[in-house]
Amino acid sequence: MRNLVPPLLRSGLLVAFCLGLAGCNLFQKPVQSAPQASAAPPVNPMSALGTGVTAASLDASTVAEKAAALNAAPDAGERKLGTVTVGLGSPTEPGFWIKTQLVSVAAKGRVETADGTSVAVDLIPFDGAALLSFAAFRALDLSLTDLPDITVFAE
User: Fold this and answer.
1) Which residues have a Cβ under 8 Å from the Cβ of 53 and sit 6 or more positions away?
2) What is the DSSP string of 25-36?
3) pLDDT by residue (tens digit) across 54-91?
4) Are the C-beta atoms of 27 and 19 separated by less than 8 Å?
5) What's phi and psi for 99, nearest 5 deg?
6) How far, in Å, are 2, 17, 96, 101, 117 from residue 153 at the CA level?
7) How do beta strands 97-100 and 118-125 pair?
8) What is the pTM of this model?
9) Calpha distance 78→61 (Å, rounded)
């Protein structure tokens, strides 16, 4: 059977089809809203450390805040919630906190390392692996690349 559509017409139909597809949303990237302006751009401490910037210079907590957090003595009424392995939380979120599944409502508490060093923190409910703030990691003298086990206490 002989081809009933001439080659020139077939080429024209193919070009028209491709142009039609190019105009539809199938090949367009989705439009994303502009990011919200923030006071300072997020800092990745791990990439900054490779440039000669020290972790101490990235720690936004004050000496007074560190002293208050480190001098928090165990409270007689506190209760042990458990031991968790923590990762480094976002360095753009200031303060002393832990995000963990061990709490269902925000509260005050304390975390303690295996060597007995402790720091007062805000306990924040979180679905996922536990995260400890950058300031708390530094106050506890933990390596930023470690995944340490810490014990969590609630007031």
Assistant:
1) none
2) GGGSPPP-PPPP
3) 555 566 667 767 766 766 667 778 999 999 999 999 98
4) no
5) -105, 125
6) 84, 66, 14, 13, 13
7) parallel
8) 0.60
9) 25
